[in-house]
Amino acid sequence: MATIDIPDDEYDPEARAIIGRLKDVRDMRSLRWIVYEVFKDFFDKDTILPSSNKCYRFIAEEIWEIWKEIIES
C-alpha cells in the first residue's frame, strides 16, 4: 500500500476551528454539524460531501469520545 507524505500539522487550522466550537456542542448531532461547517469553510466546495454523509458522523464520534474524557476528568 502506498503512503502519503502529509505534514503532522496539515490539518491544524481545521482542528483548531472545531476545538474552538466545542463549547457550543450539546450532543453528537450538534458536533456532527460543526464538523460539517468547518469542513465547508476550509475545503474546496467541489470536495465537500453532503452534510448527510456518514463521514461526518465518524469524525464526530471520534472527537466526542475524546471530548467526553476531557470534560469528565
Mean pLDDT: 89
Total helices: the number is 3
Q: Looking at the structure, what is the overall shape?
A: globular
Radius of gyration: 13 Å
Q: Tally of extended strands?
A: 0
Gap between N and C termini, in Å?
39 Å
List the helices and strands in order: HHH
Low-confidence stretches: none
Tell me the helix content.
55-70%
Number of domains: 1
How would you sum up the major sheet?
A: none
| Backbone structural class | mainly alpha
Give the percentage of residues in beta strands: under 5%
Structural commentary:
The protein has 73 residues and is mainly α. It has one domain (12-72). It is built from 3 helices and no strands. Helix 1 packs across helix 2 (28-42) and helix 2 packs across helix 3 (54-72). The model has no long low-confidence stretch (mean pLDDT 89).
Architecture blueprint of SSEs:
Elements: H1 12-20, H2 28-42, H3 54-72
Helix pairs in contact: 1-2, 2-3
Structure, briefly:
The protein is mainly α and 73 residues long.
Annotation keywords:
single chain; 73 residues; mainly alpha; 3 helices
